[in-house]
Amino acid sequence: MAKALNLKWSDGNGKLKKTKTVSFNLPAFRSADGFEVCPMASVCASLCYARQGRYIMPDTVKAREFNLAIVRGELDAFVELAIADLKRIRKTSIRVHDSGDFFSQAYLDAWFRIAAAFPEKNFYAYTKSLHLNWSAIPANFQCVQSVGGKLDSHIDPSKSHSRIFPTHEDRIAAGYYDGNESDAPAQRGEQRIGLVYHGTFKLKRGQAIALRQIGV
Questions:
Q1: CA 44 → CA 24, 72, 148, 211, distances in Å?
Q2: Quick one: which of 39, 60, 161, 172 has the fewest CB in 10 Å?
Q3: Exposure string over 61-76, b if 16+ CB within 10 A, otherwise e
Q4: Burial letters for 146-156: b for 16+ Cβ neighbours within 10 Å, e otherwise?
Q5: Which residues have a Cβ under 8 Å from the Cβ of 37 and sit 6 or more positions away?
Q6: Alpha-carbon distance 171 to 177, whole Å?
Q7: In angstroms, rounded to a whole number, what is the distance separating the alpha carbons of residues 3 and 9?
Q8: Alpha-carbon Rg of the chain, whole angstroms?
Q9: pLDDT 10s digits, 61-113
Q10: Are 40 and 47 in contact (CB under 8 A)?
Q11: Phi, then psi, of 66 in degrees rounded to 5
């Protein structure tokens, strides 16, 4: 990772290391002051991996709140900072959000501007913000529609989308790629990406049933 960066980036996730990926993150679901970072979250909020384990360690929380403060300040300045950082970061795959989502059109458009500045890099994001206008998405930006939000009816199952499953057996039976092992399926834009729940909180029976029933 390059030094003296303006924003807080992450490359410590084992899955990201496999694909030489760096990620930019915001607080999961809501910020410390109650700002809705994931406005389209639904059933996923109670199971969110980014609200458990290492994600709630003080340094991790602080880094994500830092990024959000900049984003909520001046988006033009954020774009400039991100572009300056990515010129120094050698990794060519960028995941937009392990935690957090596109909370506004202006914020999504900011990422489109960033991605357009680096046609040689690959950007991708799992998102439930399907109410936003994605028509200007750059060719090097892959959108993975995420099942489990308020707008599941908006998901086009013929395009890249992801589901959470209670077990790998459930994922395999449904015919979804293994998204736990690597983010390569998301980066390639595979149609069916399966993420098996692996949080520190054990799934309750009702939650496991609900995950088996949620689909597109």
A1: 20, 24, 6, 9
A2: 172
A3: eebbbebbebbbeebe
A4: bbbbeebeebe
A5: 26, 27, 28, 29, 30, 31, 68, 100, 101, 103
A6: 8
A7: 11
A8: 16
A9: 999 999 999 999 999 999 999 999 999 999 999 999 999 999 999 999 999 99
A10: no
A11: -60, -50
pLDDT of residue 51: 67
Task: Write down the pTM of the prediction.
Answer: 0.92
**In the prediction, which pLDDT does 2 show?**
44
Average pLDDT of span 127-137: 98
Backbone angles phi, psi at 194, to 5 degrees: -105, 130
Residue entry with tokens 């395999």: 172
pLDDT number for residue 52: 64
Over range 190-196, report the average pLDDT: 96
